[in-house]
Amino acid sequence: MFKFLLKRILSLIPVLIGVTLIASFLVYIIPGDPATSMAGEAVNPEILQKIRDHYGLDKPFIHQYFIFLKRVVTFDFGESFITGDNIGEVILERLPNTFILAISAMIYASVLGVFIGVVSALNRNTWIDRLAQYFLLLGISTPVFFLGLILIFIFSVKLKLFSGTGFNNIYSLILPAITLGTQSAAIIARITRSTILDVLPLDHVRFAKAKGLSYHKIILKHVLYNSSIPILTMIVLDLGSYLNGSVITETIFGWPGIGSYIFYDGIMKRDFPVIQAVVFLGALIFLLANLLTDIIYFYLDPRLKSKIDSM
């Protein structure tokens, strides 16, 4: 197990380098000048050149990228071009907010998705199953920004039950969590339904029925457990993408997390260090989520466990 984890951890390094290299290059070739964003359009050209010299913006791309890598190794993401704030401190301040939103959305998506998937599979080809299929189609096809705006209009503007933006209290979580998690809930429900339908005809389930085990015990212990690997895979990977900072959801609801930070302070203002730091963090979180998925496989699938132990 240790050798397997070591190989997986070492394999993360070239992926991280590749992701940050591509993201940095795309930002580099976008038209515009960060120095102009810092100083304004009407500033003296000599001052603009001094700004470029100070921040290394006049250097070739590869030189700027190696400066960023050097900072990453020392856990120093530098300062924002625009605000002058320490980027690492801002990320540490905002990351818990994104974490809270991601966990809330994932709990909502997991509970709702697994419940609908199980009910749909156990009532195959009935009106319940057809109703569940309509939910799956609606949940998967509805854009996140559209769902968020509809929820704000209904529950904030019309009914005035929740605040539309900001993180004021625990109730502020409800609308963004639903917005962020609904699409995942539909996907989890679809995966749960299909895997349960694959497991139900298997011999060990029929043997459990022949032994006279209760219906609920058969579903929980023999059906859901043996269907858990693809379901958990989807849940963990979605959680990784949420922790990256869901830009659309956080922007719509004014959520003070990583997503709104990279949108407002990074992309809109062409703040290179902010974009590079958040992209690196996002890639790292997603890769760690993949690593966590492999560890879950190790404990849930005895065949994989014996194969790894024999390596």
Q: Write the element-wise H/E pattern from the N-terminal end onward.
A: HHHHHHHHHHHHHHH
Q: On the 0-100 scale, what is the average pLDDT?
A: 80
| β-sheet strand percentage | under 5%
- CATH-defined topology of the domain at 99-258: MetI-like fold
Quickly give the CATH architecture of the domain at 99-258: Orthogonal Bundle
Please describe the biggest sheet, giving its number of strands, its sense, and whether it closes into a barrel: none
Distance between the termini: 9 Å
Poorly predicted tracts of residues: none
The radius of gyration computed from the alpha-carbon positions, rounded to a whole number of angstroms, is 24 Å
State the helicity in percent bands: over 70%
Q: How many strand segments? A: 0
Topology, element by element:
Layout: H1 2-29, H2 34-39, H3 45-55, H4 61-73, H5 87-122, H6 127-141, H7 144-158, H8 174-199, H9 203-210, H10 215-224, H11 228-243, H12 247-252, H13 258-267, H14 272-300, H15 302-309
Helix pairs in contact: 1-14, 5-6, 5-8, 5-11, 6-8, 7-8, 8-11, 9-10, 11-14, 13-14, 14-15
What does this protein structure show overall?
The protein is mainly alpha-helical and 311 residues long. It has a domain of 160 residues: Orthogonal Bundle (MetI-like fold), CATH 1.10.3720. Helices cover 76% and strands 0% of the residues. The protein is built from 15 helices and no strands. The chain is globular, with a radius of gyration of 24 Å.
In short:
With 311 residues, the protein is mainly alpha-helical. The chain contains 15 helices and no strands.
